[in-house]
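DM between two lab members

TW: hey, do you still have the Sulfate/molybdate ABC transporter ATP-binding protein entry open?
JB: yeah, one sec
JB: this one, 345 aa:
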Amino acid sequence: MEVTINNIRKEFDRFPALNDVSLKIASGELIALLGPSGSGKTTLLRLIAGLDYPTAGKIFFGEEDASHRTVQERNVGFVFQHYALFRHMTVADNIGFGLKVRPSGTRPAKEEIRRRVSELLDMVHLSGLEKRYPNQLSGGQRQRVALARAMAIEPRILLLDEPFGALDAKVRKELRRWLREFHDRTGHTTVFVTHDQEEALELADRVVVMSQGRIEQVGSADDVYDRPGSPFVFSFIGESSQLPVEVKDGALLFQGHPIGISEPGDGVGDLFFRPEDVSLSDEQEALFGKVTACRRLAGTRIAEIDIANEGHAPYHVEIEVPLHAPVELGSEARFRPTRWKVFRK
Ligand code: ATP
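TW: and the structure you got?
JB:
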């Protein structure tokens, strides 16, 4: 099911939790809503679900205007961070619940429900555990039961709000891989909320980066990581450093001096680069500063550099250096970004 979100605004006591949000989600797509706390991710998910209604704007499911439809009418499945399984029901009863409470006429026969539950158990790799109660399951297993329960009603769209947030790192990783496979097998349009960028980049077809109730950028993992469209996206996703610069006659100047980088145009702006996109340099035209800390990573090192800023606190940047490069604590390091982006003011 394709979902189209048109110019949505959502206010709580006049506070705009969402401000002019538009997004087209293709049928069968796996979409991540990624952003810091308070950026509006959950609010957007709740509006798609029909748990809340927009102050302005419209939401379409396919061609149908669903903006004022109820949750039931929208037929969406959702799973929250804190799996709300019924504790007094077995796994099988939890999964079949949504079907059993359907009004008579639309309720499948008992035998049909049993068949569907068994199919779903198989799909979430929990066959054999149907008679267990939630407290006899691990956190990851409970979350898979919650997913199976959401899927039982054959939803048009699957909505997940930090579904793995409460689990430990290893289980999270396993469930991530599992969810991707599950999605590829079932082909449901799926929207999930996360503030974990690794999760978003690894799992999603497209990542929607949100900040302060707005969409900053929508794109593939490569788009948002390699081609961030705004200073916010550049600094929110991955590691980066930032320096104020001037562009003059096709060259980049920092503190009035060329640093060996060409950049078209003229004006002032901020230079952004990632630690891995830097090379050490002996050239006169380069950035330089004092190494204040060094950390060993698996195959390389990260050096923290303070660049003097007369009369003010130094600029702090981080660069990745080869293990045996002569970059020592307290020494001076000279380097140039090899990939960068200048956002003009
Ligand atoms: P988190 O990652 O912390 O869950 P989020 O990105 O999901 O954050 P939302 O929960 O969508 O953010 O909240 C967006 C903004 O709207 C926040 O400033 C929040 O305080 C506000 N907000 C959300 N729900 C309500 C509500 N029911 N009443 C008043 N303000 C609300």
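TW: got it. The chain has a mean pLDDT of 92. Residues 241-344 form a domain with the OB fold (Dihydrolipoamide Acetyltransferase, E2P) fold (CATH 2.40.50.140).
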